[in-house]
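The aim of this short unit is practical: by the end, you should be able to scan a pair of folded records and say something sensible about each. We start with the first protein, listed as its amino acid sequence and then its structure tokens.
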Amino acid sequence: MLVLIVGTSYLLVNKLNANLIRVGGEERTRMALNQAKQALIGYAVMFPEIDAKSGTDPIDGPGYLPCADINNNGSAGGSCSLSGGTSIGRFPYKTLEAEDIKDSHGERLWYVVADNFRNNPKKLARQNSETVSDSTGNLEVNGMADIAAIIFAPGVPQNNQNRDAGPNDHTNYIEAVFSSGNKVIQTSNTDNYILLTKDELMQAVEKRVLGEVAQALRKYQTDYDAYPWLSPFSDPSTSAFKTVINTWQGHLPYHFLEDLPDGSNNRNPFDTEQSVAWDINNGTLTTSGNPDTPDPDENCMRSDDCTDSIFGVLNGPIQIAKAVGQCEWTNTVDVEPKNYMKCNGTKTITTAYTRTHNLFGEDIDITYNVSRTYSITFEYTDIDDAIIANPESTSSRARTLDISNNNVENVSVQLSDTYDSGLAAFAAWFNPVLYDGQRASTLVLSIGEILDGNISVGSIQYDINIDDGEIPDWFVKNDWHKLIYVAYPESESPPGSATVCTSGTDCLVLDGAGNPENNNRGLVIIAGAAINNPAEGIEQDRTAAPGDLLSYFEGMNSIITPPDNEIFEKGKASSIFNDQIKVLATP
């Protein structure tokens, strides 16, 4: 049974609110309704696994409910909608892997699912606590809005109900009145039912999401001896979700290569350091610029370790700073870029160079300020065998790619030398002419040209890789990443070999967690739907203030000012608080 698979941590129905259930005194009926509600929650929480078993691709995230059984065979319908009447039917116990649940009169249960939660066809492109708050896709029962599903226990026939004549007609089993395309339900005093609210269901799903993030971060810490640096919290619709060094609180940084459900490209270039070394024996060499200025030495075009007539001995690799280096997963020949990466960057070095010129028959030494700019672009394949380096105090987790033979698509190495004597205004007097100006040489390997030599590109930023399964792809596809906030104390900074906080001294504090509260090495927090409760002074507007923690989190979880930003709060869901928190580890 799915209920057993899920476990008690996901079940929110142990203590049911009196408004959510009406049963006329029969204990068996009460238990049947409770059991059915638990099965629905279990199905929604475990939906990715259920979806995977069905063989569908892509696999959807948690939060979906099955269609109703409209044929009285225990199985959910293939598709459904409230307006079409196919979201009203019997409880699909076989689809839910539950027993054939019946009420105290031996009748199978009936069930209605809201459009926001049906699993086929899906009404929402992204299923999370924010999107399902669209009330137009939820049920309203007896004036109570935001109902995900209602389960009825028919009991004995009432009034003119004829169950023999209409065994699949809900009006022969349910006395409730349906209106507004079956979205509005008014029950009668003879209906026995239980409600599954949007908030109940999504709080269970949020626990699943928290568990996935916590599991990913714990494995990351085990594998790489530290938690990852984070991405600073900002407007989730525009945040880069990329690592920034010395960020202990914020978004989870990630890489993900598939396009998002709305079709937007998710492979935006990201800034990254690069450490580039090369030794190339082939390719086409061209020059451009001032012909009176010397060409960069060819041996320095073909290798980062060389001796140059202007710069002397040059020892690679070339170190490209994050501010001038970018990488992206893309390519020119394949629509599936997961094994391709394109990087580019620049690096400028300078030197003083003295050259003897003749002026009016006299030899004069002229000293030039010479700057050399490396502009390097590589596009290559087979990145799966990259060497991965742990995050450090000044760097993120990084990859080094060693490239040789035929797995390179494009290579361009350009050396551009600029000479400045300060005497350009007098250039016509000199014989031979001054070197002032720029001269560039470019070495290019075209698509299909096999590399004779090797290239190594290191220090490429490597955030949590969703494509490699470090966290499920539905986490991003359903925008859960926009509702997650991660926090560590500064004492947990990489490298991790000696960075474990001390309880009561420099660990994070979690009020409401029980004793001790001050021993948390890391926390993951998930925001529920925006709270609009003016009477209690809480009006979260994620459109007007999308970059404000107060728009997402409540209480101590919304404070960004030290030292209070290292104190967090755990509490029960209410009209003024709906954050949920998962502890990553304790010392």
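Turning to the second protein, read its sequence before its tokens, just as you did above.
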Amino acid sequence: MPKISVLMSVYNSAAFLEEAVDSILSQTFSDFEFIIVNDGSTDESGDILANLAEKDKRIQLIENEENIGLTRSLNKGLAQAKGEYIARMDADDISFPQRLEKQVAYLEKHAKVGLVGSQYDLCDADGKVTASGERLPENNLSIQWRLLFRNSFIHSSVMIRRRALELVEDNYNVELPYAQDFELWSRVARISRVANLPEVYVYLREHDDRITVQKKEDQEMVAIKIARANLNDLMGNNYFNYEEAKLFRRWFSFGMLKIESVEQIIFCKKWLSIFQKFYWKNIPFSYAAHKELYTTFLQQTVVEEYKDHNFSKVPKLAMFFPGEYFQYLKRRVKKEGFIPVAKGFAKRLRARLNQIWVSSTIPYRLQFIKGRYFTDKTTYLFFPSNDTHVHWMMPIAKKIPGAKFIIPWVKKERADYFLSLNEIKYLKFKPGLIAGMRPKVLVVGNDWYWETKIAMDEMTKGGGKSVVIQEGCLDFKFDGTKRMQYADYAFVLGEEMKKYLVRDNVIVTGNPKFDVLQKFDYPEKPVVMINCNFTYNIFEDIRSEWVSDVVEACNALDIPFFISQHPRDKGEFPEEWEIIKSNAFKIEDQLKRSTVLVSRFSTVIYEALFMGRQVVYYNFHQEPFRLFSQDKTGGLVVIDQKEALKEGLEKAINEIDSNETNRTRFLELNCNYSPDGSSSAVETVVSHLEQIANEVDE
């Protein structure tokens, strides 16, 4: 199997084709296949390709009977590609001899990067260099920012991991006649890091027949639609319309916000909201790491003086950012003044700045606090990101005097509702909150969420420690999200987790949510609970098929069923099916009604096993999680084909008593379960938290 599959589509490119192909065949890295799709060419391209393929067996020629377009031709070639890496090449460009060698070396060294391009120079029809290409951003953060508005890669310079393409599921979007690479790279950048090499490894040929010359206006329209989709993916559906996306793309290209009418002030505010959301989504531990991005953005975010309105050149994003940047931006605003467009706007801006800024000698915004709840000394601070976290954090907090709660400012997912329901006080997290409280230990459920990252950064700066507690089943195989890697300590469910989570300070504690679970008698007649938890855009496209398969198996066996639907699952089902909306506080009652649980990857599987229920793990869609699919205990009935589902469900019902030993073994390995009841997750967690607090004191 070749290391690389080089992919090229050709349509009437005879003038430059042989030079382009030769630039690949003469690469210093030779372990590749060269897949070339002749897309119904009517010039001499077909003869040239046939001759080249005869000379070099690495060329695999695909002939389209008619012209089907670049997008479909590329997808046709991708379907045949066998390499670990996919490299693109256009039929009129030139690759430097070391291009493939350098890109393979980079991807081998940087496992988290899914796509890498390079810089480029421009050449004419004769291959003579005419100009240096636009300098493309090199690091992931800068590329991610630019990809919101513009393509950050030269198509002929790209090499991408096959695994990255598999994770985004679709290849090139066949609905797009142009800019299909921009759309694909945008999707890849959402699930992996991306990069551009600093060196030039491609000549981009400029000539009259090039698509960017012939169809420039059409291509720009498609690119604006892609930019709008990218912005709405960041900010939320339909936050921006086409005209706004067009304006932002133009502003980004000009390198500044140029206000051309009073009405565009509202667009300017939206522009600032884009950067605010992007910043908080991608913030690393150190604010200093963003200095380059800040500098770039401040240069872009100025308002030009307009002939009808006396605007000042002033950054207007000062109100959004924390730490040392507050002080920097405050000085800039004071020095350069405010926007005197509307008297009320300037007044509100001044009021907002005065409200949020604090003296450098006061690390905490006390003016936001009502009462003494968060001004008292705090040792343990709990930061639930959703209702499930509240469910298992509460029993820990009850064992610790003076424990307090904060919740995310943006994505609360009903954490506020359930804290209020249990009459527990809380505050919404804001940057600077923890710096003033100075707790010794911060307990989180998701240490990879952007708001918890900021909180843990403040803990580190204040000398405290952060702890992430595993609430359910996780898989740590993939690079898209680094789960349980950021906190100082990781409390995991069972010994089995240590095989998957590679880091320091891993402690096996179990999770308190399982302490209260106990076995219950089964219903008189078998009942199947179908766990529908297709959320966060993960396999949501197969929800209906998955549920229908299980319902069909239940009907074939004449077994009653009901569907337990995750509170954030958006599926719609026939009215005759019994649908019950679930949450962390209802799931136990639902499991009591059932004999067998059928589920995809879910923490409910653990809860069902603790309550003595049989579990069928139905994974026809091949979700790539190892904890269940590779289970060796026999505690689960693992089904990966629809044809086997009926038989597997029948087996689970018939063996519910005889399989108890295997279920127990599964829980011992994965959940720190003690059959004699000697182990309490609450007590274990509290004991370790106290040890960590004592270490902070020392």
